[in-house]
Amino acid sequence: MKPSADVLEIIACSVLIIVSFVGNTCLFFSTRKCITGHLQTSFLLIFSLVFVHLIKNLVVNVMKIVYSYDFMLDSASCKVLHFTAALTTSLAIWFMLHFALLYYRQLYQIVHTLNEAVNLDHQKHSLKSVSAFWVAGVAVYIPVLIYTRKSEHLNAGNDTDPLSANRIYMDCLIDFGNKQVEFYYGKIFLVLIDIIPLALLVFICIWMSFLLLERKKMTYGDIWVGDDDSDIEILRGAKFSILLMLLITPLWISHFILVYFLKDLAVYVFIPAVLTALSSGFSALSPFLLMLVNYRMKLVPLCGAKKEKSTAHSANVTLSPYG
User: Could you tell me if 182 and 176 are in contact, meaning their C-beta atoms sit under 8 angstroms apart?
Assistant: First the structure.
């Protein structure tokens, strides 16, 4: 007997919730010591990403599980579902773009040996930027929260309807009441606010890869000059940005294509589970990528670059970021 669409979606949501909760919790506790010490911009963004990931899984995927158990969502639940799913997706992309820009600028400085003055208000500026992302995200998706409604034409109990496997995408509709508003806001604006930052992220990460290659030639020449702790942290962050770009970009594109052709693919029972995996895969896997990169980069503590200098055995050892 083949599993139903609801069973597959429940399994997918459950796995993603567990994996995301474990990964993001471990990531949070591994970086929480930054709160009491020197809070770097990258860690502020990491905390923001952790919070966004947990919201996505503990709200959106839990609601999907509830719906898959044949508990009908009311209009308010549909609003929360669409609003939270869209907001967390955009915030994840925006935070990743900010993260990549941060390390691109720092990587460019160390590759081209630029000695710029340290900006003492850099952390305050980053806090303002993160806050601005949250405010902008909420403002952008307020119309989604307002105009989402529950469909009045449900196919409850009709398992022969090919769209019944994707009820949650059909029952919770966004009805703007105006075709022009629906076209320019719903189909163009909401896509552009994701795809433009995503395209910028790809471009920046490609440029960062060239900078990393240039840095590798510099450090693997006839004379090894070594890297200090701050350089290692920058190189690690740049590589992490590239890895996350390679993860979030195909997931977003694949999800966008499947949603666009959802009516044509509704006959396949696994589509809801695939859509869930694509929409929440980044929030589940990215924490483990960060911890993996940190382990690969000689286990340099996330917040303890300066603390390593106190250990006697590592005081005179030069670490290669490519070892």
Answer: yes
Q: With contact defined as beta carbons under 8 Å apart, do 167 and 67 qualify?
A: yes
Only one residue has tokens 């000689």, namely 298
Q: Are 290 and 99 contacting, i.e. CB atoms less than 8 angstroms apart?
A: no
Comparing C-alpha atoms, which of 83, 103, 56 is closest to residue 285?
56
Q: Which amino acid is at 281?
A: G
Q: Residue for token digits 């500026």? A: 125
Query: Could you list the pLDDT tens digit for every one of the 323 residues in the chain?
Result: 567 778 888 899 999 999 999 999 888 887 765 554 444 556 777 788 889 999 999 898 888 888 877 677 777 888 888 899 999 999 999 999 998 988 888 888 888 876 554 454 556 677 788 889 999 999 999 988 888 776 665 444 444 444 444 556 666 777 777 788 888 898 899 999 999 999 999 999 999 999 888 887 765 554 445 556 667 778 888 888 898 999 999 999 999 998 888 777 777 888 888 999 999 999 999 888 877 765 554 434 445 444 444 443 444 433 333 33
DSSP state of 172: E
